[in-house]
Each structure stands twice: as C-alpha cells, then as structure tokens.
Specification:
This protein is of the alpha/beta class and about 250 residues long. The chain is built from 8 helices and 9 strands.
C-alpha cells in the first residue's frame, strides 16, 4: 500500500473538501464525483418512464434494466445478470428472499443465523415462525479471555450447531458492530462438508455483506454461496441495494 495515492483517492470525494471527517458509515457513505455525475446525467437526460418505445425511454430502460444488473454481476462475479435483484433495502431483499423460499421450508427445518445485524436475522426468524422451522444462533465469542470486546464468529463453534435438519445458514461477513471479518469461503466450505457428513439433504447459505462490501471484494462463485445481500450506499455509491440469488 506504500504506492497508494491517498490525496488522489480523497480528491474523488467532493464532500471531503468541507474539512469534515465523516464516520457515520451505518447511515451511508460519501459518494465519489463520478457517482454524482452519473446520477445528474440520468436525471437530466433519461429521467423518464421506463419501457416505452421512444428513444429516451429506450436508453433509460437499458441503463436501469440491463446495464445496472450487468455491472452488479461483474462487481461480485456472478455468472449472470439474471442472478441480481434490486430492492429498497437489504432487509427488503432478505424479506423477499425468505418469502420466496417459504414453500420449500417445512416444520422442523433448522436455520442457523447470526444476531448482530437485524437485516440478517429478522427475515429468517419470521420465516421460521410462519413455517415451524427452528432458529439456532451462531454466537460471537471472545478470542481473548480477559477482553470481552474481542468477539469473533468461530467455525469450531458453528459446526456443532449443524445437524441432519440444517436447511439454512445465514451469517454476516463482517460485524456491523465491531468490524470483525469472517473468512467466508472457509466457513462455507467447512459447513457444507459438515452438513454433508451429517446427512443434511439441502443446505443453502446466505451471507450478509452490508458491512463487508465497503472494504473487501465479494466473489460469489469463489465462495460457493447461494445468496448475498449488500448496499451500494454504504460503498460510496447511490442509494441502491443489490442481492445475489444463485441460479
């Protein structure tokens, strides 16, 4: 990182010229001049009804319905733009996902979730209450005995929660409270192998990357993950919320 041009990076963010230090990422990040320019261009030149056959609408529809999913798929290495869904929030994306899965969930199925981010937990809890599924919580525990703040999600504490009834594992890639980072690929590989050895017939994995995406690249194919949610507006982008649903 010694050759990283900090001044050049800062110059991409007009808001930083005010002299303020913005540390409220949970409320949304600052955006680059490029994002401001693209939003302005859209509002000035293509802010029209989508789906019509006149030229401006055709261009606007392409930008929203073709270009946007293609760029999101490229960003997270999805196989196809058809695997990208946009919603008003990550919570809404997960709520829509859980309702879409409802007919494939039966009483007694087990969901393993983490609890620090409500967007990751709430929709799965509601799905369990509607279907008779069972909620288990993978809890973060201290890595240093005398430091209660050294919390981390540990693979060795996840695997005992997995049984032949495990149906969903939904966890955060990064804690939105402490910022601790989970080795996503390693976790998914371990839980899939353990679930298979215990006879679980179908396990789908959902990863909440809302606090992860601003700092690390997402690679859904490399991770072997089924569902991912994250928020553009916490990653120096517009107020949009893409999700990945594997095909």
């Amino acid at each position: 990182m010694s050759d990283f041009d900090i001044a050049k990076a800062r110059n991409n963010f007009p808001s930083l010229k005010s002299g303020y230090i913005f540390a409220d990422n949970a409320g949304g990040s600052q955006v680059t001049q490029g994002v401001v320019d693209r939003i302005s261009d859209y509002l000035i030149n293509t802010n029209v009804q989508l789906g019509a056959d006149y030229s401006v609408s055709v261009e606007s529809t392409k930008r929203c319905m073709t270009d946007a999913p293609e760029q999101a798929a490229k960003l997270i290495n999805a196989q196809s733009p058809s695997e990208i869904v946009f919603a008003n929030s990550s919570t809404m994306n997960l709520e829509n996902l859980t309702r879409g899965l409802e007919n494939d969930i039966k009483a007694g199925d087990e969901f393993i979730i983490t609890s620090e981010h409500e967007a990751n937990g709430g929709p799965w809890k509601k799905l369990a209450s509607r279907t008779g599924a069972v909620i288990k919580v993978w809890k973060a525990t201290p890595t240093v005995a005398d430091n209660p703040y050294s919390l981390k999600l540990k693979i060795e504490e996840l695997l005992p929660l997995i049984t032949s009834k495990t149906r969903i594992v939904a966890f955060t890639a990064t804690s939105n409270i402490l910022g601790s980072i989970v080795p996503v690929k390693e976790v998914i590989a371990a839980l899939r192998a353990d679930a298979k050895s215990k006879g679980a017939p179908k396990v789908e994995v959902s990863v909440d990357c809302v606090a992860y995406a601003p700092h690390r690249l997402i690679d859904v194919q490399d991770w072997d993950v089924d569902f991912v949610v994250f928020s553009y507006y916490k990653s120096s982008k517009p107020l949009q919320h893409p999700s990945f649903i594997t095909s």
